[in-house]
C-alpha cells in the first residue's frame, strides 16, 4: 500500500512522497520538489499482465481489482492508496474523506493497465481543486497559492495523459476552471 512516505519509521520522504509534501527529512523550505514516482506506469512499461490503482476510499473497486488480479496469470501489481493521519497531519476521522478526495482531484486516479497497453479508467471525477485537498492536510500548509497552481497544472497534465492512453476525450475547460 502507499501512504506516500516511510510512515512507520518517522514520516521520511520516499519516491512515493508527492511534490510539495513536508516530511521529517524534507522540512520547511526543503519540501519535496520532485514528482511522485508513478509505480503503475513503471510496471506497465514492462508490459506485465495487470497493473492497477485502488484506494481505501473505494472498497468495491479495490475488491473487484483484487479478484481480477487473482484470476490472472503472471505478474500482477495493485497500487493501493491509503491516507495516514499522523504523517499527513490530519484528524483520523478525515482519513477516508481525504483518501476519496485524492481520487476526486485526479491526484490518485483509479485505473487499470492490461499488458502494458490497454488502459481502463475506473472513475472519472467531477474535479475538486488540488488546493481543497491540500488545505485539509498539515503536510502541505507551507505551500503558496503559486505552488498550488503549479501542482494543479501538473495534476491536470497527468490526467490528460491518462485520458489519452485510455482513448478517452480530453476535458473541455478554461485555464484554472474546474467543476465542483
Task: Describe what you observe in this structure.
- The protein is an alpha+beta fold and 180 residues long.
- The protein has one domain (30-165).
- It has helices at residues 39-44, 59-71, 85-88, 95-104, 130-134, 145-165; strands at 50-55, 76-81, 111-114, 118-121.
- It has a four-stranded mixed sheet with strand order 2-1-3-4, with helices on both faces.
- Strand 1 (50-55), helix 2 and strand 2 form a beta-alpha-beta unit.
- The longest helix is centred in the C-terminal third of the chain and has 21 residues, at 145-165.
- The two termini are 28 Å apart.
Global mean pLDDT: 87
Question: What's the multimeric state?
Answer: single chain
The main β sheet shows up as: 4 strands, mixed
What is the H/E string? Answer: HEHEHHEEHH
Portion of residues in beta strands equals 5-15%
Largest sheet, order of strands side by side?
Answer: 2-1-3-4
Low-confidence stretches: none
How many distinct domains? 1
Q: Which structural class best describes the helix and strand composition?
A: alpha+beta
Helix content: 25-40%
Helical segment tally? 6
- Rg is 16 Å
